[in-house]
Sequence to fold (163 residues):
Amino acid sequence: MGRRHRYKKRMKETPELNITTFLNLMVVLIPFLLISAVFSRVTIVELSVPTGAGGAASNKPNFSIEVIVRDKGLELADGSRVVAAIPKKDDAYDMEKLSRMLLSLKAEYPEKEDAIVLMEPQIEYDHLIAVMDVVRAAEIQGKQGDELQRVVLFPDISIGDAP
Fold:
C-alpha cells in the first residue's frame, strides 16, 4: 500500500510554466515591429532583360532607345549608332540635358514605350537608379507655369552591360 500512495503523490505534482519573461518580451517586441513596419517601404520595378534569342525578322526599321552610362558621361544611341554624347558636368551626370533629349525623342515617337539602359561595370548603382528614373518619367512646367507635371516617357526599361 505504501507504494501506491507515493505514486499518487508524484502524479499530483505538476510543474508550473513560468512564461512571464516571454510575455514581457512580446509586449515590447510586437509594438516595435508594428511601428517599424509602417516606416519601411519596398519598391519593386519590373525590368526585362534582353535575351540572346533571335526572333522573327520584321519589316519595321530597328529603332531602339539606348542610354549608355559611361565613366566619362552619358551617351544616347538609337540601336545602331550613338546619336548624342552628354559629358559630365562638375563631375556629375547631366540628368537635365538627358531628360530634355528624351522628351524630344518621346515627341518624335509617342508610341514608343521601351528603352534600354546600358552601364559599364565600374559605375555605381546609385547612378543606374538615377538614370532609370530620368528615362521612366520627366517633370515639365505646366501650362500656367507654376506647377510641375509628371510626364511618362519610357516605362518599360531593360538593363544590360555597355559595349
The CA atoms of residues 106 and 137 lie 11 Å apart. The radius of gyration is 30 Å.
